[in-house]
Amino acid sequence: MSAAHDRLARLVRDAGSVVALTGAGISVPSGIPDFRTPGTGIWANVDPMEVAHVDVWRTDPARFWSFYGHRFATLGAIEPNPAHAALVELERRGLLDLVLTQNIDRLHAKAGSTDVVELHGSIAAARCPATGERVPADEVLRRLDAADDGVPRSAAGHPLKPEVVLFGDMLPMAAVARAETAAAHADLMLCIGSSLQVFPVADLPMRTLEAGGRVAIITSSATPYDDEAVVRLDGDVVDELRGLIDALDALGA
Fold this sequence. Notes:
The protein folds into 2 domains: 1-32 and 80-120 and 170-253, TPP-binding domain (Rossmann fold, 3-Layer(aba) Sandwich), CATH 3.40.50; 36-77 and 122-164, SIR2/SIRT2 'Small Domain' (2-Layer Sandwich).
């Protein structure tokens, strides 16, 4: 525990409203690679426009599902890590209102967070845009394994589309609207494991700042808000959040 953890703990304790904004970095300790780290990131050796764009799903669903089938299979087996658990503990203590996440892995919900806004959707299911049929992830994988052409399909025979925001997709407007409202009303936003480079999510900290709130950043990578942050922690995300919990314990919060 450091002086920075103590300062952050006091800010969390004294804030009327705290929200967390999380990115890929919070899930790295669970074994999920981030997106752009050279050599290990998800997009380090794959062009996302060739495998994860909505146009690829439309025109070459077999190629699309050769990538996303692996994502469904691997992400579904991943477990939350202590960083996710720390946010659950903040919620349990009444110190965190909700989690806004860019992640599709569902690890916040799996850890026990009860109010999570999934800004990029999730791997919980896939849907048939033509008929509206919704297929849970386990059944998607079963249909994928049984498909001769490598494409899981709806009962009507149409290719299924994951309930995630693909490149070329619009973000879910209801989720974005709720996130913007929460950001504008937050006294403190904890930005965890995100480089805050992807819009419109990258605008959320600015909404907090413009409304008179504060932003704390807990991530190893540089962000556009580093100079605006009231606290900046750049160590391992698990260690930093454990430090925050320890500091809250020391304050009796």
